[in-house]
Specification:
The protein is α/β, with parallel strands linked by helices. Among the domains are: 1-44, no CATH class; 156-176 and 232-341, Rossmann fold (3-Layer(aba) Sandwich). 44% of the residues lie in helices and 11% in strands. The strands form three sheets. A four-stranded parallel beta sheet has the order 2-1-3-4, with helices on both faces. A two-stranded parallel ribbon has the order 5-6. The chain starts with a helix and ends with a helix. It binds zinc ion. Zinc ion (ZN) binds at residues 94, 181, 242, 244, 266, 318. The site of zinc ion has 6 residues, from loops.
Length: 342
């Protein structure tokens, strides 16, 4: 898969099999015996085989779905691969839809890393196709201890009555009953690191022993730093935009007491009944902060905070933003939460 020509041939075959080739099916069929014809007869396929940045054309391409995970992978593969991100920084991974170019990138990649558990719902089909076609595809969530999705707004055992409370997991059509937000705990990312390093090493033919050790040390130090930070927070009660801080809360002794969207995805609607419920929970728990993030209606979040007499604090949970790396992203998130709650 390393050679651009082989990649073009492979892509041509795959697109034909998927019925996605628009003009040259006859040339594409039987492509394995006529690579030259295929590679030069279809401009779109030629374009797909060209690496965008010629200065790093000699490095294998590793495609990672979202920016936070890409930062982790980049640390591991520094100098041995060109790590590119599919979902633009600042865009919500829960509702991202890929362009044909994104599909090409994934199909052409030497190694693909994604989150899993339906975080990247819009990329599911292309990731399955890539995996079935022999592209090495690695899902972080398949290598960590996952948390079950719980309805954080179901406080029925504490005397709160949530109008939309439902004993089934989640409020959407997910097949999964596990929380996808694994990256929000560095400890959870550490769990996946040995398998990730092994898979990357196999896919790229490189020795990552030292890089893995170094990254593991950094993640362990970050985890300790956060544990220490949260040991100074007396009552870590979290009210969030959607149900996103489960892994973080579990690791650092916090409790998610309510979410404006009780769903583990942002693909849900705020309801008036739920708003009243969340306001009631904030008041009765004497919670002082509402944390909001990408994917939550800012006006709704502001109204909830105001009516509950709580401070509204914006946090960044689903993309790197101004953070230079995963380490600084988690550090900023932890510091913002801890400082707001003190
Ligand atoms: Zn989310």
């Amino acid at each position: 898969m390393g050679s651009p020509r082989l990649v073009a041939v492979f892509l041509a075959g795959l697109l034909a099999a998927l019925g996605m080739s628009c003009s040259s099916d006859t040339e594409v069929s039987g492509s394995s015996s006529k690579p030259e014809t295929v590679a030069t007869s279809d401009a779109s396929l030629d374009a797909a085989s060209v690496t965008t940045d010629t200065s790093i054309a000699s490095l294998p391409t590793v495609v990672v779905t979202y920016s936070i995970l890409a930062s982790v992978v980049r640390k591991l593969l520094e100098d041995v691969a060109d790590v590119v991100t599919v979902i633009p920084d600042g865009q919500d991974p829960h509702d991202f839809e890929p362009s044909p170019r994104d599909v090409e990138r994934i199909i052409n990649a030497d190694f693909v890393v994604f989150n899993g558990l339906d975080l990247e719902e819009g990329l599911d089909d292309v990731l399955v196709n890539a995996r079935n076609s022999g592209v090495p595809v690695f899902a972080i969530a398949e290598h960590v201890t996952t948390l079950d999705i719980v309805d954080v707004n179901d406080h029925s055992d504490h005397g709160h009555v949530h109008p939309g409370a439902d004993s089934s997991h989640g409020h959407d059509d997910h097949d999964h009953s596990e929380d996808p937000h694994v990256w929000l705990s560095p400890h959870t990312i550490r769990e996946a690191l040995p398998a990730l390093a092994r898979a990357a090493s196999d896919a790229l033919g490189v020795d990552l022993t030292l890089a893995e050790e170094s990254l593991d040390d950094q993640l362990a130090a970050l985890d300790s730093e956060l544990s220490e930070l949260f040991s100074t927070v007396e009552k870590c009660q979290l009210v969030t935009g959607h149900n996103e801080l489960g892994y973080f809360a579990q690791r650092y002794g916090c409790t998610v007491i309510a979410a404006i969207l009780s769903s583990p995805s942002t693909n849900a609607e705020e309801s008036a009944g739920n708003m009243e419920f969340v306001i009631d929970v904030i008041r009765s728990h004497d919670a002082r902060v509402v944390f909001t993030s990408l994917g939550t209606n800012p006006a709704v979040a502001a109204r909830v905070a105001e009516q509950a007499g709580a401070q509204l604090v914006e946090i960044n949970t689903h993309y790197l933003g101004a953070s230079e790396s995963y380490i600084s992203f988690i550090r900023t998130l932890g510091t913002t939460i801890a400082t707001s709650l003190r």
